[in-house]
Amino acid sequence: MTSAAVLEHPGLLPGALDPTRPHARRTARDWLVDSLCFVAALGWVVVATLDAASPVPSYAERLPYPWMIPADAVIGVALAVALWFRRRWPVGLAVATLPLSAFSMTSVVSLLVIYFTVVVHRRTAVALAVTAGGLVANMFFALLRPDPDLAYWPTTTWGVAITLLVLAWGMFVRARRQLVLSLRERAERAEAEQQLRVAQAQQVERTRIAREMHDVLAHRISLLSLHAGALEFRPDAPAEEVARAAGVIRSSAHAALQDLREVIGVLRAEGSLATEPERPQPTIADLPTLVAESRAAGVRVDLHDEVSAADELPAATGRTAYRIVQEGLTNARKHARGAAVTVGLRGAPAEGLSVEIRNRWPVGEPDTDAIPGAGTGLIGIAERVHLAGGRLEHGRDGSGDFRLAAWLPWPAT
């Protein structure tokens, strides 16, 4: 709801009562303001009645009937009581009491308060319509209740001046409240947008960490499956080899379980990210260790590193290259068991970094014991490369090999 629309409903303004909501109640400020208005209206009734009934030359000399003094007092008291309902029906009270402003002296304060309420809480068009009616009634007031000391036009001018003054004051109050509401709405919107940005940043960070852990977990499980398959294939292997393979399986299973717990913990996090510091992310310098793990699992891997000034490679680019090689080795173990894998890296500052993983396409029927995959590894790698501003290619080449190749930008230092 806009600020202008809010102003059309008094209950939505600070210190106002909304008649459309049964649970709305006057605030302490409302009670204080309404009480002061009621007391001021009653005080003016007393003053105006005493002045009209005084023996000195006054309005009483111009009244055609004596009973008009007590009748006017009753009208003034009734309008003072009606002020307690002005928040609920401001326009209705203004229209109903508009004829009284043509002759009632005791109701002047009450009529001005009701008129002020209309100007503050209703549209400008409504306020101007009530103002026009009041100005017309004011012209009759000078005729029906002439001032003994002032002529007709000075009296009428004073009435117009007071009416316009109340109009200006009410419009100022309305504009100020509208400004306050606009600033409050803007502040609340900014706070909500900030909270949304924080939540989105946390979600992006959790997704990034989960993706990193997914790649590591897939790599460890593929190693685990490879060692278990070797034991199944050679049940008569020497005890030392069996013990060494069992140790590798145990350590890989423990590491995979730990990674899985971290993934679940990250995905379940809702308030904030884990308070523990994030583990150091691998870079291109960790590729020999990654290759050594695959060789220990029985995979024939040849690493050709032709990168110049590797220590100047940006950390993000090195981490992306590591994940590409990791995904390529994982896919080779899954889908091309026993095939030799060639990993090649070359590049230099201002030339970019090229990464290529190549293995022979498996011959014969697909292995029914192959490690199942979710099929999202290459999708994740493609997203990484795209975000890094590089290019990715994968599939069978002209020689029949499966080739995973990427080029990553490497700006000159």
Automatic annotation (TrEMBL):
Any one of the GO CC terms: membrane
Gene Ontology terms for molecular function: ATP binding; phosphorelay sensor kinase activity; protein dimerization activity
Keyword vocabulary terms for this entry: ATP-binding, Kinase, Membrane, Nucleotide-binding, Phosphoprotein, Transferase, Transmembrane, Transmembrane helix, Two-component regulatory system
Domain Signal transduction histidine kinase subgroup 3 dimerisation and phosphoacceptor: 205-270
E.C. number: 2.7.13.3
Coiled coil start-end: none
Enzyme class: transferase
Catalytic reactions on record: ATP + protein L-histidine = ADP + protein N-phospho-L-histidine
TM segment ranges: 31-53, 65-85, 91-118, 125-144, 150-172
Protein name: histidine kinase
Organism of provenance: Micromonospora maris
